[in-house]
Amino acid sequence: MTGGTSGADDARAVTADGADGADVDAVAVAADALTEALGAGPLEGQHLLLTGATGFVGQALLEKLLAEYPSTRISVLIRPRGSLTGAARLTSLMRKPVFRPWRDRVGAEEADRQVAERVTVIESSMGDVAELPGDLDVLIHSASTVSFDPPIDEAFRTNVQGAVGLYEALLRTGSDPHVVHVSTAYVGGIRKGAVVEASLEHAVDWRTELAAALSARTAVEASSRRPEVLRSLIAAARAESGKVGPQAVAAAAEEGRREWVQKRLVEYGRARAQSLGWADVYALTKSMSERVAEDLWAGRGHRLSVVRPAIIESALAHPFPGWIDGFKVADPLIIAYGRGLLPEFPGLPDSILDIIPVDIVVNATLAVAATPPPVETPQYFHLSSGGRNPLTFRDMYENVLQYFSATPIPDDQRGHIRVPSWAFPGSKAIERTLALNEKANLAAKRLLLRLPSSTTTRGWMRGVSARAQDLELLRSYADLYQSYTQAEIVYDDSRTAALGRAVAPERQDVHGFDAASIDWDDYMQRVHLPAVTTLMKTFSSRPRAKAVGEKALPTNPRAVAVFDLEGTILASNIVEQYLWVRLASLPTSHWPSELADLLASLPRYLQAERRDRGEFIRTFLRRYEGVDDARMRALVRESVSDALLARMKPEAIRRVRAHRAAGHRTVLVTGAVDVLVEPFASLFDEVVASSMHVRDGRWTGYLSGPPLVDEARAAWLRLYAERHDLDLSASYAYGDSHADRAWMELVGHPQAVNPDAALYQHAVQKHWRIRLWHDLRHRRLDSLVGVLRSESALPPSEPAPTPRPPKTHSAEETPA
Amino acid sequence: MTRPGYVLTVDEDTPPLVVFRGGSVRLERLPVGSDVVYPADAEPAVRSLSAELDRVLAAPEGSEPLERLLTAGTVLTIVVDDLSQPVTATSGADVRQRIVERVLEMAARAGVDDVRVLAATGLRRRLTSHELLSTLGERVFRSFDAASLTSHDAEDRDGMTSIGELPDGSPIEVASRLVESDVVVAVRLATAVGDEGSASLVPSFASAATARALTPVPGTDRVTAQQRDDALAPFVDRLGDRARVVTIAATLADAPIQRVSAFLGKREREWTLLDRVRSRIVRSTAAVLPEAVRPVRFPGIGHVVTSVRAGAPSAVHASTDAFLRTTRLANPPARADIALFGLPDTGYGTSGAPLDPISVATLGLGQVFDGVAGEPVVREGGVVILSHPLTPSFHPIHHAAYVDFFSDVLRDSTDAAVIAERFEDDFARDDWYRHLYRTSSAHHALHPFHAWYATSAAREHLSDVIVVGGDRETASQLGFRAATTLEDALDMAGHRDGGDTSLTFVHGTPVRPAALA
Question: Does the distance separating the beta carbons of B292 and A790 come in below 8 Å?
Answer without folding.
Answer: no
